[in-house]
Amino acid sequence: MTDTMTWTQSIVLGALQGITEFLPISSSGHLRIASELMFGDDAGASFTAVTQLGTEAAVLVFFARDIARIVVAWFRGLFHADERGIDYRVGWYVIFATIPIGLIGFIFKDEIRTSGRNLWLVATVLIVFSGVFWLAERYGTKQRSMEQLTLRDGLVMGLSQCLALVPGVSRSGATASAGLFLGLEREAAFRFSFLLAIPAVTASGLFSLPDAFSPSGDGMEATGPQLLVATVIAFFVGYAAIAWLLKFVSGHSMNWFGAYRVVLGLALIALLATGTISAT
After folding, report:
1. What's the number of domains the chain is made of?
2. What does 8-52 look like in DSSP terms, one character per residue?
């Protein structure tokens, strides 16, 4: 029988979604862990996807000028070849790079909502991907700016975004790491990562709205007002998180987040091994 979500749960999880969505520590992984640890149940993939609409709205507001400039440049470039600058190209990069996660997310939607949320998997991925961060920081030249972005960069980062379908990976962590491997500056990698997430996360959230009200056994059932409040909280907290992260990564390594992920992953393994929480 599906449990009904309380107001405390929806508020706490909405705030947690806002904090963790943009940091490379996995929002879906944190919501999965927190809901099991604090409330003894899974908030569900649908609840996570819907509250992500709040954090994506934060991206739209934070990058409103950039997005407007890219959209205008894209439309102008369609009809005027002499206006096909970097903003026009970035528009196409986002479109092409979104295709892989759309296809894979649709094909494996049932696995993502069930077996993909096993906490043993989450713990393992948290630790393993901290190593990916270290490698990206170690071998990425970090010399190329946003203006030097290419279609190849967009496609590689788009493919890496598919990994974020597994809780524990982190969308921003996977795509930004790919950007670093490609030689992009940290801030450029994260900026494109945020732009790339907009269509995929928005589509996922809208697609999951009906399931969020009727989880069918794969998560707690939230009411409409609870989903709304959680999403609004995620928006405001997420906006603050974007501002902080872009400032932080301009002068600090992703390894700080990698170290946190290792600690969290090991702690989660300990809780699972001692039977303190259930993996499913």
Report:
1. 1
2. HHHHHHHHHHHHHTTTTT-HHHHHHHHHHHHHSS---HHHHHHHH
